Amino acid sequence: MSQLHTFTFNAFSEQTYLLDHGNGEATVFDPGMSTAEERERFNRHCIGLGVKIVQCLLTHAHLDHVLGLAWVFDCWGVRPRLHPTDNLTWDQAPRAAELYGVPMDPLPSRGPDLEAHGSVVVCGGHRLEVRCAPGHSAGHVVFVHHERGWVIGGDVLFQGSVGRTDLPGGDGATLAKSIAEQLYTLPDSFEIWPGHGPSTTVGAEKASNPYVNVGGTGMLQR
Ligand SMILES: [Zn+2]
Ligand SMILES: [Zn+2]
Questions:
Q1: Do the beta carbons of residue 214 and residue 206 sit within 8 Å?
Q2: Is residue 221 part of a domain?
Q3: 213 domain-assigned
């Protein structure tokens, strides 16, 4: 786990992750740094690790997960990769920023789309499986590191909670299906690093998540 670094950024307390490839390079996930102080903190952390950012991956394109994209592009010339089924969320991000009154730099153009469900993204020596997990947004994906036993999960499943489903493209039944089929099928020991709040494990949520659990007593069962 020492190679995965966590940051809490912006007005939405969004979790940005940095995966150190171990060779002087790193991947950033959902860069949400929005103030000069947050950007400086992230930059200092990279300098401390001796890494430069060479890849930027998005679980989905909600406002709170894209606020640092322009800055990341300016610093490292790296363009974000998103699953194309989340295009609508991407297109709506500037409007969402207006609605919430959050200043947002114009989004950079994107890099190559993430590939199909089950495809693999290489991060140095790390291999992450891309799994489509819609329901919170239409094109949400999670990144599964099978070898290390962890998931960068975005806003699908939280400790004791789930992602909201009332935003455009959201749907409760679809979210419950994604959790059951894409996360609860992983080993209980797998750690989930979510888009908000502390990490949890597949086993803990299967046992006691009040929205979707294995006992079938949750509020959002399939
Ligand atoms: Zn979201
Ligand atoms: Zn979020």
A1: yes
A2: no
A3: no
Tokens 């991956």 belong to which residue?
A: 57
In this structure, are strands 120-123 and 80-81 parallel, antiparallel, or unpaired?
unpaired
Distance 194 CA to ligand 2 centre (A): 9
What percent of the chain shows pLDDT beyond 90?
Answer: 98
101 within domain boundaries: yes
Task: Look up the CATH number of the domain holding residue 114.
Answer: 3.60.15.10
Interstrand relation of 80-81 and 52-57 (parallel, antiparallel or unpaired): parallel
Domain extent, residue 112, equals 4-208
Q: How many domains does the chain have?
A: 1
131 within a domain of the structure (yes/no): yes
Percentage, residues of the chain above pLDDT 70: 99
Handedness of CA 112, 114, 115, 120 (dihedral sign): positive
Would you state the pLDDT for residue 172?
Answer: 96
74 CA to centre of ligand 2 in angstroms: 23
Query: 3-class SS at 132?
Result: strand
> Residue 42: how many CB atoms within 10 A of its CB?
24
Q: Which band of pLDDT confidence, cut at 50, 70 and 90, is reported for residue 189?
A: very high
Round the average pLDDT of the chain to a whole number and report it: 97
- Measured from the alpha carbon of residue 16, the closest ligand is 2
Around Cβ 148, how many Cβ atoms within 10 Å? 16
Task: Please give the distance, rounded to the nearest whole angstrom, from the Cα atom of residue 116 to the centre of ligand 2.
Answer: 22
pTM of full prediction above 0.85: yes
